[in-house]
Amino acid sequence: MNIAVCVKEVPSATSHRRLDPGTKRLDRSGDSEPNPFDMHALEEAIRIRERGADVGEIVAVCMGPESAQRVLTKALALGADRAVLVTDAALAGSDIAGTAYVLAAAVGKQDAELVLLGQQAADADCYVMAAAVADHLRRPLVTQVADLQLDGGTVRAKRQAEHGYDLIEAPLPAVVSVSDAINTPRLPSIKAIMGAKRKPLETLSAADLELDVARVGGDGARSVVRSISPPPAKSEGLKIEDAGGDAAEKVVAFLNEKGLI
Amino acid sequence: MGVLVYAHHDDGEFAANSLGILAKAATLGGEVTAFVAGSGIDDGWAAALGGHGAGKVLVADDPALAGGLSQPIVDALEPSAREADAVLFGAGVVSADVAAGLAARLGAGIACETTDLAAADGGIVATRPALDDSVMVESGFASAPGVVLARANAFAPREDASGTAPVERVDVTIADWSRAAALTGREAAEGGGVDITEADILVTVGRGMGGPENVPLVEALAKALGGEVAATRAVVDAGWVPYSMQVGQTGKTVSPKLYIACGVSGAIQHKVGMANAGTIIAINKDQNAPIFEFADVGVIGDALAILPKLTELVAARKG
User: Which of A31, A150, A259, B169 is deepest in the core (most CB within 10 A)?
Assistant: First the structure.
């Protein structure tokens, strides 16, 4: 069995994130990192292998600008066997619909029975890519997985739901998104970082994937940003500086006044 | 404009987030149709969505729709969705998967984390806060239907819901691959079955409480107030309390009447889960903590010192 893991390049958590007022797209010129949520998916792929499943290869798949090679190199250092970067000027500005179409085409070519994704992207905060990719691939889907077991050709998963957990079984090939509660991702060793440079990193274009370019890029985007604006101002709250423990009395007075106790 | 609203339900109850976006849809001035998928649906029960804003209710009834899995629902919803100008979803694990699967199926645009909706130019315009809520982004759609997924608790259901809407049953065709996954069971969350999303009062433990040995201070205040204890992700990750108590983007979204945050910095990942609380009181030593930007009462001080006193005063007042 082979596993494909989708990895997105996102602005690093410490960078100043902004929308470019001209293009209304996320400014990706600053420092970047692999989407932290995707690192849980990669970690789980490695653990599936370590737990003794017959994993042929783990392939990390990314769609992004050429700079996204950096995040794939990191994925290789962590334990992916090879990496695929889908990069093409025609893809810049793709919306969720376009990105899902491209990712599905890319992972569909990897001969991977299990496709793993993180639960969301840290830059857009959307929870939708796994379900969209699964629909394109016409494969069963399990999302928000907090515990994942492979039993022959069956995925047994615990999904975090509003009420607790759903226990879900699905046959391979399948698409699974993991919750960040599933594991704690490891850090790469220095040796592995050096070794990553010798692992294969393939680059694919829109033409290589035989994509319909009308469905991708800024022109193909179905969701169109009309305007960006500052958030509404929030009225200033009451501030209490604790002096020798008197804050408790002030809080109780406030609660009392509001009828909350 | 014709708007289709997916009404998710679990255990015989419609999801509050679905009812919320249905109520919002009814204010947009178009024709609002609710869509219910399940097995053994009672038409009278579904008709009550009329009281929440639906002008008509479509029911897809099939044994394959009983499992609480998204993919059969996408199949059931697809034909009706193709007729709509917009398809709206409240937040929720299954609802998000249905929205995303449907958008892929239709090649439709999808707007996520939506906190406001408007009708414009014959279609729908969705607004969301983005990048740690530092900017508001307004999006429309290049083609119909547009798919809209709301942020948790972004829209409140109608408080006074009365009336019914006509119910129409739709034909259901479900592909084999859509029914390949199966729900085999459910497990309660760790944490003694307390559902923090239902609590009227929450007292939350943040990293600033120092260590697990101080969690009882928070428990005592929660008990005195008649509320429950919740926690931030950092505290859950550190193993002080179980995951079921986690509030935030990767935990639960809560909207209690009163939220007291103890030693919580208020990073965006936490804020997303609790910003809709009625009254927010934050106690933190760091006067620059982000939580003070949206707390109704910001107490700058040491929660370890303040909590015992606060608990004592609350308990005394409650007698």
Answer: A150
Q: Are residues B101 and B169 in the same domain?
A: yes
- B307 and B244 in a single domain? The answer is yes
pTM for the model stands at: 0.89
CB B183 within 8 A of CB B240: no
State both tokens at B45. 């029960």
For the record, the structure tokens of B91 come out as 């937040």
| Contacts with B154 from chain A: Cβ below 8 Å | none
Interchain proximity B177–A140, CB inside 8 Å: yes
User: Which of B135, B294, B302 best probes binding to A when mutated, by most A CB atoms within 10 angstroms?
Assistant: B135
Handedness of CA A9, A15, A20, A24 (dihedral sign): positive
> Cβ contacts (< 8 Å) between B132 and chain A: which residues?
17
Q: Return the ∠ at Cα A226 (arms to A224 and A227), rounded to 5°.
A: 135
Same domain for B129 and B22: yes
- Distance from the Cα of B100 to chain A's closest Cα (Å) equals 5
Question: Along the 319 residues of chain B, how does pLDDT read in single tens digits?
Answer: 999 999 999 989 999 999 999 999 999 999 999 999 999 999 999 999 999 999 999 999 999 999 789 999 999 999 999 999 999 999 999 999 999 999 999 999 999 999 999 999 888 999 999 987 889 999 999 999 999 999 988 899 999 889 999 999 999 999 999 999 999 999 987 766 677 888 899 999 999 999 999 999 999 999 999 999 999 989 988 889 988 889 987 778 888 999 999 999 998 888 888 988 889 999 999 999 999 999 999 999 999 999 999 999 999 987 7
Q: Do residue A141 and residue B97 have CB atoms under 8 angstroms apart?
A: yes
How far does the CA of residue B22 sit from the closest CA of chain A (Å)?
20
Contact list in A for residue B187 (CB cut-off 8 A) is: 158, 164-165, 167
Using CA atoms, how far apart are residues B150 and B86, in angstroms rounded to an integer? 13
Tell whether A150 lies on the interface with B, counting CB pairs under 8 A. Answer: no
Domain-located, residue B184: no
Q: Which residues of B touch A97 (CB under 8 A)?
A: 103-104, 107-110
Q: Which residue from B44, B73, B76 is spatially nearest to B57, judged by alpha carbons?
A: B44
Check if the beta carbon of residue A119 is closer than 8 Å to that of residue A177. Answer: yes
Q: Provide the domain limits for residue B267.
A: 196-318
Choose the final residue of a domain: B146, B179, B212: B179
Chain A (29-88) residues lying within 8 Å, Cβ to Cβ, of chain B: none
| Same domain, yes or no: B31 and B103 | yes
Q: Which of B208, B215, B211 is nearest to B266 (CA)?
A: B208
Domains of chain A: 3-220 (3.40.50.620)
When divided into structural domains, chain B yields a total of 2
Q: Are residues B125 and B200 in the same domain?
A: no
Per DSSP, the three-state class of A51 is coil
Structure tokens of B148? 């809209």
Which residues on chain A are in Cβ contact (under 8 Å) with B220? none
